[in-house]
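Two entries, shown back to back:
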Amino acid sequence: MELHDLRPNKGAKKKRKRVGRGIAAGQGKTAGRGTKGQNARSGGGKGIYFEGGQLPLARRLPYKRGFTNINKIVYRPINVGHLAYFEGGMTVDPEIFAAVGLIKKETDPVVILGDGELDIALTVKAHRFSAAAKEKIEAAGGKIELIVLNQKIVKE
């Protein structure tokens, strides 16, 4: 096979209908538009917005501004106060948070927030930490570890 042998499949290409080209062509005279009326005229027909006088769908829906960001990451918040229930010296991560019911799924991105008090040393693994949470965990003698978020997997 060579370049000059290439052809589209049989039936893949269809000739366009040439309307209004004489009575012998099969689509002459009225060109398939019927006789008279709004749709027979050039530029005829109602716009896509028109719904026969009924209030159009675009006007029936509530007015909505802006757009929805499809790349938005929804973090599951966990406060420092909730970390106080774990044993000292433990490493806590999203798997453990899901196991104890602080978040629904272990694949959810987690943010640690600074509400509450912490007096035990923990190693906390999460996707994000607030400044206050970071301060409280380190003040209690704990460590923080950031989990890099793979945006292709985590979407909502």
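entry 2 starts here
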Amino acid sequence: MMRRTYCSCAILLLWLFMNRAEAHPHVWVTFHSEVLYAADGSMTGIRHSWTFDDMFSSYALQGIAHAKKGQYTRDELASLALTNVESLKEYDYFTYARANGKKLKFAEPADYWLEYKNPGLTLHFTLPLKAPAAAKAVQIEIYDPSIFVDFEFAKDKPVSLSGAPPQCLATYDLPHQPTPAEQARLGQLDAEPLDPSSTYGEIFANKILVRCP
């Protein structure tokens, strides 16, 4: 059992991330990812916007003090945002990237904050690369290895580039649809959950590919 952290207004959110064996999936996220580039054309990081399902958002907001009913400011959600990024660290922020086939390493999240628009919470955060990547092909995958969190591209604006050379093109692939055998395996996960070290969830990854000729 992973160590539990009890901290004021963020107990429920952290609890849901840490007790991953209790449901499958338990959290649904609709996301947009923006791939960031420097002036020299090298990739520098990824900016994520993750919108959580309304049930998870409702649980996460319980106990958070706010001045206006049904409204939450960025300051009021600041401690919850911090707990989000701290609890996600153990899971590599569900973000994996390769440049020209070589694995990229991310630094600690920056510019993280939560936004509330009824009925859901949206977590905004930037994952900087530890070192800029000058590459013709970058592949980014967003998924939960244990399939506790279900990720889905935003329909209106799934992927964008910021500061990239004009010839760069971003495309994306939706997750693999499970075969009957895989569907049966997924149906067993509540009783036989996967842990964060599992690679099974990778076959259901959301994929972003950026090519720069």
